[in-house]
Amino acid sequence: MAAANSSTTEFPCSLTISLPLPNHRLASSALRALEVDTELSPFVRRDFALKSPSTEDQAMGDEGKTVLETTYKATTNRMLRVAVNGFMESLGVVLGVMEELDVDVLREESEE
Predict the structure, then answer these.
(1) Cα 51–79–8 angle (5° rounding)?
(2) What is the pTM of this model?
(3) 2-102 sits in which CATH class?
(4) Which parts of the chain sit beneath pLDDT 70?
(5) Cα 89 → chain centroid
(6) In the chain, where are the structural domains located?
C-alpha cells in the first residue's frame, strides 16, 4: 500500500485511454508498435495493457482482449498533456498504417 501512495504523490496527474480495436491481432500489433518508444521525460510514466471489453469476452482468453488500455501518470498536468499529445500522434500513425496496409483490410477491399 505504501508503494501505491508513493506513486500517487510523485505522479498525481493521470489519464487512462481505452482504445477498442476490431480484434486481438490488431490490438496486440498496436501495443507492440507503440511500446517501442519509451517516455523521454522522467516526469511521466506510461503503462500498456490489453483488456477484454466485457466479462463475456474474458472467457475467450487472449483472443477476447481487444481493448488497448494506456495509462499515463505525470508530475504535472502540463507534462501529462505533452506526453498524451505525442502519444496521440503516434497512435494516429499506427492506426493509419493498419488501415492502409493491414492484410485483412486489403482482403476485404478486394472482395468488394
Answers:
(1) 60
(2) 0.78
(3) alpha beta
(4) 1-7, 56-60, 103-112
(5) 12
(6) 2-102
